[in-house]
Amino acid sequence: MTAPAAAGLPADEIVRALLREDLRDQTAYGAPQLDVPAALNTNENSYPVPADVVADMLAELARTLPGLNRYPDREFTALRRALASYLSRSGTVIGADQVWAGNGSNEALLHLFQAFGGHGRRAIGFTPSYSMHSIIAGTTATPWVAGTRSADPGRLFTLDPESVAAQVESAHPNLVFICSPNNPTGTAVGLDVIEAAYAAAPGAVVVVDEAYAEFARPGTPSALTLLPGRERLVVTRTMSKAFALAGGRLGFLAADPALTAALRLVRMPYHLSAPTQAIAVAALRHTDTMLATVGVIKEQRDRIAHELAVTGYHPVPSDANFVLFGGLADATATWAALLERGVLVRDVQIPHHLRVTAGTPEETTAFLEALAALGPRHQAVVPAAEGA
Ligand code: PMP
Q1: pTM (2 decimals)?
Q2: Residue 129 C-alpha to ligand 1 middle, in angstroms?
Q3: 30-47+293-378 maps to which CATH number?
């Protein structure tokens, strides 16, 4: 380090030279965090944590904080039990030893890559999908295979068992990622797709990212039901979306106890702070209250999809708390024009498409009115399929 500094090189060039080659041309992941009237770009829950839950969190913190001189419970025992009982509400009994958690499901995903991926191994996902899957693959030096989804206009972005099985078979992966409902498309898959991926990759851990599961329309099954007897299957969830706890940073997963035990090999000791555990435990004591907004959010999602279709855009059917829609002449220009009107949506780099989070009725109205105010020149004259 002394030599280049002495040569008078700027710090960013010195750091670049020191950095891993594969990271040198990367840009950091991160959606804009702007103070706007309608922040609809990161699929958060727009409703604040209710006052009675805040009060209980404060009480739990008051019991916890004097003990901060000690490391937190490394096994997050109370939290695991609470998460297991929450997941068991799905109808599949999940034991505490089947649960793992991290600071957001991103950290739980990182643990999966650290334990089962890495140099000389391979992971596959089906794009467009949650970009952190491939980004974490990159940071853990896991070669990534970008699988594809249907481009058929009538079934845009869907996955079918045959295509998934064929893609998985030819990739020979150690890790398979299926996001359902999928971000950024909102598309949920049938259990037959997950079963097909599992059967096609006997040497792989199959991860179903269900961050948005609570918003799925009736009849959309959770992959939790497939866990019994499948020791290589993992279902990830988060408290960041339906649970309205994005700032609490708590994500979790369910899998066979042998698999969750393996994740201890890669986690940092005491990775879940005592305040994090306390807040999440308190939130889970109020599960029904915390999830009470899911119904109204789903109504706004369906309202957005309906209104967009009526006005000539092409919303993709969604089981999540957001809608991806096509039919834009220039997605980046529309993104900027909406922001000028105080509405922040997400440009997910799919040509002619933007993604909007379903928030409060007022936020939905602000989005729909801002889009309408832009006028027809923002609309593409191409049919939906070409926009994909
Ligand atoms: N999975 C999916 C599909 C997501 O969209 C997100 C967040 N946008 C996450 C996982 C990670 O969320 P968190 O780390 O807040 O749990």
Answers
A1: 0.96
A2: 11
A3: 3.90.1150.10
